[in-house]
Amino acid sequence: MPVRRKVVLWSVLTPVALIALLVVVILTFDWNRIKPWLNDRVSEAIGRPFAINGDLTVTWRRGEGEKGWRTLVPWPRLSARDITVGNPDWAAQPNLATVRELIFVLRPLPLLANEIAVPTIVIDSPAVWLERLADSRNNWTFDTGPKEGTSKWRLDVGEVVLARGNLALTDQLKKISLQAELDTIGNAPLYDKARDGALVEPQASAVPPGPPGSAAQAASAPRAGGPASAAPANGGDGRYGVRWKATGRYNEATINASGKAGTVLSLRNTDVPFPIQADVRVGTTRAQIEGTVTNPAHLAALDVHLTLAGDSMARLYALTGVVLPSTPPYQTRGRLMATLRKEGSIYEYQKFTGRVGGSDLSGTLTFTKRDPRPLLAGNLVSNQLRFVDLAPLIGADAKPGRPAKDSAVAQPADKALPVAPFRTERWDEIDADVHFTGKRIIRDAELPISDLVTHVKLQDGVLLLDPLNFGVAGGNLVSTVRLDGKREPMGAMVDLKARRMKLKQLFPTFDLMRASIGELNGSAKLSATGNSVAALLGSSNGEARLLVENGTVSKFLLEAIGLNVGSLVVSKLFGDKPVQINCAVSDFAMTDGVARARTFVLDTQDAVIETTGGIDLRSERLALTIHPDSKGLRIFSLRSPLYVGGTMKDPRVSPDIGVLALRAGGALSLALLAPVATAVLPLLDLSPGGDDTQCARLLAELRKRPTAPPPGKTYKDPKAAAAPDAAAGADATARRPGKPAAEARAAGKAPAASRQQPPRPAAQRPPQRPANERTPQRPSNDRSFYQGG
């Protein structure tokens, strides 16, 4: 054989032989020999003990998806059994994770371009123990040390196929203890296919395509109040390949959860959604979801149908970090879409519907994570809002001896004002910008409230309700409320206006007001400090004014107040008649929780009714005196002051027994000395009549805008400060015990309890009382807080 031919032959046979030898070596090589080297390299890279304790094997199969000569290059399928990843020394468990078997297929040709291409990874029976201490140390963060330069190698993983597994989580920082189990559904054909090294395709979306609210979307949505729809046990449409369940505790609440997920997790094609389904119960809160996660390795997007239910929305804070108010039991259902990113994730709960207590609720809410605080924004609407469902917002749902919802403070049995504290410590954790409309309010017959509109803004711990408007008695109650949760105690400012409220609708259950005509207007401006409704009102300062012009009121009501017995009988026999209202005016000064009546007058064509005294909102005590004065002849008049005492929880109304006794005694004396006709003289009300009182000055005074000092400052009544000191001395002299009120008026001064009132026009002043009438004496325990101005 020529030398040249031998050289050519050897040149061809040698590479073939080397390749054949290499193939034989690879096929017969015991890959377990490289385990020590591989274990050391991985342990060094992650800073933790790593070991492949079982067999390390390599098999070969034909590549899939290749074309041309590339189909001749086989793909290695690597299998590693019994893998352990160790824990730090401080951890309670020796291992972070164990895996029964890890299988992956490697594409060899991309290795020439410094790329490690792994089409599929199969994880069989993983067990993971996650732990975090109170000092924030955790065992899932690896200490990889400083990186020297940038590696030329790139890792490209296609799909991850999940199988059976267990997860345990102990988080001392979040106070979570959780155990979860993962298992395949049915025969899991995708899992078996992946184990053999074949490529598998990710599942289709669990939510059919189409716009929100479309027929396709509605068909796949879970029913409100029921469990989310599930795929058949054997995988059905192929969306779900594994099922999971979890139990544990979060704070003091019990966790019970279950759900399903897809078998194939696509890491390369980030546009392929990963189907999920879950039913989670934490304490009294339940969340049901069904939908998809896009790019689950980085949680890029979320699109699920979400049903929420629980005892109070305030308890969602522990689960979501979103500050919500206390509410009655609720249930909502809607579509939750989220865009998840490092610079700020956005969650949108779209077009949800549901109920809160007995009220319906719908709308859209958007939660944006941002610095320095997240923002909750949206629009909410209730077509039928039960007024009682608003009570937990201010702690008014508390019963005597029992705390309000989400509060540990019990409501005292003798208190009418809610004492449950506001949870202001969370107000600086979130900002809010929410519009709410209650189109129709369902309430008790005593409450003439029809609708509600408000704009809630929470910014850096300061809550602003601007406006907070109620439809009341055919008119409007327009207000602005500002609560400063940054200060301790909380500061509050309230600016309130009552406009065009109908008298006959203000007291719908009071028969004597049904014939009334006229409109009530008013305004108030108050400041206060305190952490509850009771504390705020008990420290309030400012002014409050109400007025009624050109209305009518029941004549029977006026006679009842004046105790004109004869007129009462006539009204009952021959019917009631309306009486023209010249004006009704009230002007209260609020000083450190004490409301004092500067002016409180009802002037009609038949009578003038004046009220003096005040209300102590700190102790909730009442001390009001009603003085009825008729303008004409009244038969059998038992006119005497009426005292309103007691507390707001237990008010008590009583006449001046002394005045009634004097009148009855006078009648008895005259009956002994004169004919029977003269016996009725003490019972005659000889009050002079006259023209209608002109209320222009009082109305002009009341139309002035009320004022209030900043929260924490005491209101200084300018009307009280304008009174000279000498007047106060004369007041005291004129009001000495036992001195008739007529003498006091003759001295030129009004009774002490009403000395802050501006002087009334002569036509408006009530007539002098008979000389034998005593000045009404207030009970000593009701006098202290409003005397002395």
UniProtKB/TrEMBL annotation:
Disordered: annotated segments: 201-238, 701-789
InterPro entries, per database record: AsmA (IPR007844), AsmA-related (IPR052894)
AsmA domain location: 1-598
Annotated transmembrane regions: 7-29
Alphabetic keyword roster: Membrane, Transmembrane, Transmembrane helix
GO biological process, one term: regulation of protein targeting to membrane
Origin: domain of life: Bacteria
Protein name: AsmA domain-containing protein
